[in-house]
Amino acid sequence: MKKTFVVSMVAAVLSTSVVSAGSAAPAVKPAATAQVQNSTFTINGSTVVIRSLVKQGETLVSLRDVVSATGAQAEVHNGTTTVKLNGHTLVLKSNSKEITVDGVKSTLKQPVTNVVGTSYIALRPLVTGLGGTLASRAGVLEISTVPLLEGAENPRFAGEGKLILSKSDEQGRADYLVDTASGKFELLLTTSGGSDLVVSPSGDQAAYTDAEGAVYVLDLKNRASRLITSDASIKPELVWSADSSAIFFLQGDKGTVIAKLSLTDGSITKIVEDKVDYKENLSVSNDGKKFVYTVTTLGTVTSDTTNIDEDNVSIDYSSNQTQIYSYNSEESKPAAVQLTASSDDKVFVLSNDGQKAFYVSIPSTDDKAVLLSVDSSQKAAKVFADYDVEQALLSGGVLYVLAAQDDSSSVIYSISTMTGKQTKLYTVPADVTSITVAGSQIAIVHDGVVKVNAGDSWRAVTK
Amino acid sequence: MKKWMKSLTAIMVAVSLVGGASSAAAAKSNLKGNIVINGSSALLPLTLQAASEFKKENPKVRISASAAGSITGPQSVRKGIADIGAVDWDASKDVPGFNKFDGLVANPVAVTVFAAVVNPNVGVNSLTTEQLQDIFSGKVTNWKEVGGSDAKIVVVNRKFGSGTRVNFQQKALGGKEFMNKGDNYKEVGSSGDMKTTIETTPNAIGYIDLPYVTSKMKALSINGVAPTEKNVLNGNYKVWGIGYYMTKGQPTGATKAFIEYIQSSKFQNGSLKKLKFIPLSAVK
Asked: By the 8 A CB rule, do A350 and A392 touch?
């Protein structure tokens, strides 16, 4: 009700301003011949029809329509129109090329033009002047004037059109749910010492631990958190079961145990308890029976502290390696199976089925990093070695790779885990630092800004 | 209409390409290097967790970790076989029992809380400073003398050079000396060994940093105050110290970036707290 009233008021004010400006500046010819047409835009996630015209090759849009669609406030005083939105102020005059944005003057290519009582202004200076952004998707311009979340990181998709993003400061971490179409965001959770939110496969729940180790599940629809267990053991990694009925986790400060937490009754079952420390990078098969993880072995130190000044200390790092293991809990005598024995550094260790692992092998030389696969045969096979791999992830049984193509660009590939077929999806600037994927949705982090794919461009959802 | 939209789209794409080119000109951080970290076993869980997270952002940085007690950290850095020496005291200054390490820079990384711990069969929940001094010096040898059952106390001590030992001696025992021999005296080389020994040795008492405390042992209150973050922050629990990463001069390159990561708000108020350390900012 209130919004409607404001918009009506704005419309009335703008109508008045056009008449007034037109009569006060007769030297500029009214654009009587300009053809006004209706154009469809997406503004803040909604489809909106905006009146527009083309003047000497440049598209001008109805100020009144854009003000109405964005919820901006406008007022006219002595022929000068002031438009305000989200702390930005744009000042313009009808029939003038000069505008002022947040106190800074600039010049338009085409003057603000009035046609039948409506002011028309170039689209981009208007939108950017009000702090908005523009992108095109399938030939339709998308305009967002929603104030974006600033300085957020760690994007995770949470269902269709939603991302969870986090901000950290000395008070702790705040997690936000961001609408990828409009950029609108809302606070989900604040925590100090809690784990990251881990989104369920269905995308409608997220699990986390608090600083004490208790596990909660947050319902992303009603925002309610449910305590699953107050078990205080340290849980370095949480992994959802494929059917979202349980959470697997590494347990202890050294990640020694692999355990399963039932979301039905909060019971904890220890699955792998082989006293092998420093497990990480846990993957679980769809049936919850098979596991892939890494084990890091530390360097061996020999020291004699009889005379400290002599520095009688030596470190043997020959055994200091990270190796990948699988574990099938369905076997009659389950035991960890070592999948790798190589000394290369292994990062982004992934598995679909809890038996075959994919990982990015980092060479000790300046050679490029490559994506490999390995199974119990311990024979590593190249999966992607065309470019220097910077990140790999697995979503819906498909591998996604971010790789440096050259000094100025990176590429994003999808790779079928079944056939190995590679598909080049996007070329992005070299300073894209990470990607996140869920189904057909993909987001990148570029210059610290999270952007989602919007057809032929990337739309920022943070700033 | 279509033509108009096409031309508008073309303008838009041209504009965004210009923007893209300009931002692509900024150099991408492509950190490479090899970081060797040795020293405190108390700080080891923190180091490994930070390394795991850091490597996801900087996959070409290899981090090799080991732990054999605090003193071996600055020794390794001084000797040139490690880039970071993890130590439970500021080794750039003299502390009782250890001279300062000249030329090393102390980079604070975490607040560590230390607890006196006993095997779960010990029927004592709290000891005074004096009782702890008497037990760890060997003056009191039976649990019945401090309110427990009639059983000989097994004292488990960390080896000389342990930062946990330095902190516990200074802050829980008021600087009093430890016993160093006897039938019911053991010495262990790391926090992990201390954990295992306390869990499996009836009537044992030792001390350990909070991340290593498990359900198979009991952390004692000291003078009636439990070893919790809350009691450290309200000033009631005194047995805590700051853990440092010692570097030869100011850190550079990958080492600098790793230390900055572990000192970041994101890590300090996230994984660090989850591992039961206290953020540096909380005790400033």
From this structure: yes
Same domain, B86 and B127: no
Using the structure block, give the residue that is written with the tokens 């574990």: A327
CATH of the domain at B120: 3.40.190.10
Residues B121 and B172 in one domain: yes
**Does residue B53 sit within a domain?**
yes
pLDDT one-digit tens code per residue, A285-324: 999 999 999 999 999 999 888 888 899 999 998 877 899 9
CA A296 to chain centre: 30
In a domain, B60, yes or no: yes
Residues B140 and B93 in one domain: no
Nearest-CA residue of chain A relative to B276?
A211
Number of domains in chain B: 2
Residue B284 pLDDT: 65
pLDDT digits (tens, 9 = 90+) for B40-98: 988 999 999 999 999 989 999 999 999 988 999 999 999 999 999 999 999 999 988 89
Query: Would you call A348 and B59 a contact, using CB atoms and an 8 Å cutoff?
Result: yes
| Same domain (yes/no): B200, B134 | yes
Task: Give the CA distances from residue A7 to residues A11, A75, A226, in Å, rounded to whole numbers and listed in that order.
Answer: 6, 12, 42
* Beta carbons within 8 Å of B144's beta carbon, 6+ residues apart: B150, B151
Residue B2 inside a domain? The answer is no
Residue B144 and residue B178 in one domain: yes
Across the interface, do B71 and A308 touch by the CB < 8 Å criterion?
A: yes
Helical H segments across chain B, by residue range? 2-24, 44-57, 72-79, 129-137, 163-171, 191-200, 229-233, 253-263, 265-268, 271-274
Centre a 10 Å sphere on the Cβ of residue A314 and count the other Cβ atoms it contains: 15
Closest residue of B to A61, CA-based? Answer: B8
- Residue A253 at interface with chain B, using a CB cutoff of 8 Å: yes
- Give the one of A123, A173, A348 whose C-beta lies nearest to B270's C-beta: A173
Alpha carbons within 13 angstroms on the beta-carbon side of residue B5 total 17
B268-282 residue pLDDT tens: 988 898 888 999 999
Together in a domain, B226 and B144: yes
Confidence of residue A33 (pLDDT cuts 50, 70, 90): low
Does residue B4 sit within a domain? no
Give the mutation candidate from A59, A189, A315, A458 for the B interface (greatest B CB count, under 10 A).
A315
Q: Who's near A224: CB < 8 A, 6+ residues apart?
A: A218
Same domain, B212 and B168: yes
CA distances to A29, A109, B50, B175, B253 from A117, in Å: 14, 21, 63, 87, 63
Instruction: Give strand ranges (E) for A152-256.
Output: 153-157, 162-169, 172-179, 185-191, 198-199, 205-209, 215-219, 225-229, 237-240, 246-251
Q: Which of B193, B213, B233 is the last residue of a domain?
A: B233
Residues B131 and B73 in one domain: no
Q: Note down the domain range covering B91.
A: 33-110+243-282
pLDDT the model gives residue A350: 97
Rounded to two decimals, the ipTM of the complex is: 0.77
What is the percent of chain A with per-residue pLDDT over 70, rounded to a whole number? 93
